[in-house]
Each structure stands twice: as structure tokens, then as C-alpha cells.
Specification:
Shape: elongated
Number of strands: 0
Radius of gyration: 35 Å
Oligomer: single chain
Order of helices and strands: HHHHHHHHH
Helix content: over 70%
Distance between the termini: 104 Å
Largest sheet: none
């Protein structure tokens, strides 16, 4: 009887241990599911907060993707500092040559060609006397598909610009008309102060400075831009209510395009 009681106690203890293991397993599964649910909730809340964060010009992608990605974006964002500094240095040297030293493009091209042709001509004729092989001049041929691709892209952008100008000139959108007029006036004012090369150099320098600074301080810039946009919208609403709403609509305003 004592042996039977001992065996019974052993069976009961084994059963209890099995039940404990099963309950622990269920508790672990419940905790894992709750953790996964909490993780999903955290991700959803993070996504909601991220969606509420204001980004300049409604940007949803990183600055690198906005600039097109790849090598050009790496250059503008100074991911490869040697190449970025080299390109900025070359642009600065060109601007100094043509703007400060007043060197003309045609003169520079002719002088470079004269020097290159003279060196190659003398090298080709002197190779027999100095026992060296003549220079290997590569045959340069511009592929037809590259030229056609550039021409097609230029044609598409030019037609798009003409369509925008036609839409503005038809009197359908007064706000767009005023924005374009203001932009052209600013460009004309800048053109009267600087020549095309200086404007191109300023734009090149801005491309090498503004994106990298914005990427570094984007949170502060976006917060300031959000406040500025809200103030601009408020001013535009007042201007629209007091001025634009009182201007009679054009004859093509209510017409539908065929």
C-alpha cells in the first residue's frame, strides 16, 4: 500500500508538472501575441506620426531620392567629398576664367585645340627619331541613340512648357498667371544684374550647398516652412476674398476643353 501511495504521488506530481508546462506555454504565447499586437500598434502609431510630420513641398521621399538618387545625388549631398569638391572647384575655375579674367569661350576652345593639335602633330612626326610609338588617337563617334534621346527629351519638355504658357495665357488661372509674371520679373531683374554664366554658377553653388544643409537641418527647416506656409495661405485667403473674388471671370473660365 505504501508503494502504491508513493507511485500515486509520483504520477500526480508528473501530471502537475505537465500541466504547469502547458500553462506556461500558453502564457508565453499570450505574451508573444500581446507583444506582437503592441509592436503593430507602435508601428501604426509611428506611421501616423510620420504622416502628420510636415515636409517641405509635400516631400515623402528622402532628399537623396528627391534628387534622383545615384551618382548625381551623391555629388550634390557630398557623399563623395573628393568628387563634389572637384566639380565645385572646376566650376569655380571656369567662372574665374570667363568672368573675372574676361577670357572668352571661343578663344579658350581655339587655344586648347591649337595646343593639343601641335603636341600630337609633333609627337607623331618625332616618334621615328626618338624610337617611340606614335600616339594612339581614339576614334570618337557620337552614338545616334544618345542624340535622339536628348532631342526627344528636349522636345517633350519644350512642348510641356508651351502648353503651360498657353494655359496661362488663356486666362483660366489668375493665380498661376501672377506667379509666372512675378517669376519672370525676378529673373529679368537678376539678368540685368548678372550675366548668364554668373547665374549658372550661382545655381551650381546652390545645388552643392542647399540640399546638404537641408538634409542636415531638415527638421528645423520643415518646422519653419510649416509656419510660413500657414501664414502665406492666410494672406492668400484674405487677398482672394478682398481682391480676386471681385474680378470678373474670363470668357473661357466656364468652358470645357474638347
Amino acid at each position: 500500500m505504501a508503494d502504491h501511495a508513493v507511485e500515486h504521488e509520483k504520477h500526480e506530481s508528473a501530471a502537475e508538472s505537465i500541466v504547469d508546462k502547458i500553462t506556461e506555454k500558453f502564457h508565453d504565447n499570450d505574451s508573444l501575441s500581446s507583444d506582437s499586437d503592441d509592436g503593430k500598434d507602435i508601428k501604426a502609431k509611428a506611421a501616423a506620426v510620420k504622416a502628420k510630420i510636415y515636409r517641405l513641398f509635400g516631400r515623402e521621399k528622402p532628399v537623396h531620392k528627391v534628387l534622383g538618387g545615384g551618382k548625381p545625388a551623391d555629388i550634390f549631398l557630398w557623399r563623395d567629398k573628393k568628387i563634389s569638391a572637384g566639380m565645385l572647384g572646376v566650376a569655380t575655375m571656369i567662372w574665374v576664367f570667363f568672368e573675372l579674367l574676361e577670357y572668352h569661350l571661343l578663344t579658350l576652345v581655339c587655344h586648347i585645340l591649337i595646343l593639343a593639335l601641335a603636341i600630337l602633330f609633333l609627337w607623331s612626326n618625332a616618334s621615328a627619331f626618338i624610337n617611340k610609338s606614335p600616339p594612339r588617337i581614339p576614334e570618337v563617334i557620337i552614338p545616334e541613340d544618345i542624340v535622339l534621346g536628348v532631342a526627344s527629351a528636349f522636345r517633350i519638355e519644350f512642348n510641356r512648357a508651351l502648353a503651360i504658357l498657353r494655359d496661362i495665357a488663356s486666362g483660366r488661372d489668375l493665380k498661376k498667371f501672377l506667379v509666372v509674371i512675378a517669376g519672370l520679373w525676378v529673373l529679368s531683374a537678376l539678368g540685368s544684374c548678372y550675366n548668364f554664366l554668373t547665374l549658372f554658377y550661382i545655381g551650381f553653388v546652390l545645388l552643392h550647398t542647399v540640399p546638404v544643409l537641408y538634409e542636415k537641418y531638415e527638421d528645423q527647416v520643415d518646422a519653419f516652412a510649416e509656419k510660413a506656409e500657414a501664414e502665406i495661405k492666410k494672406r492668400c485667403a484674405v487677398f482672394n476674398e478682398k481682391v480676386l473674388s471681385k474680378i470678373p471671370k474670363g470668357p473661357l473660365k466656364d468652358k470645357k476643353l474638347a
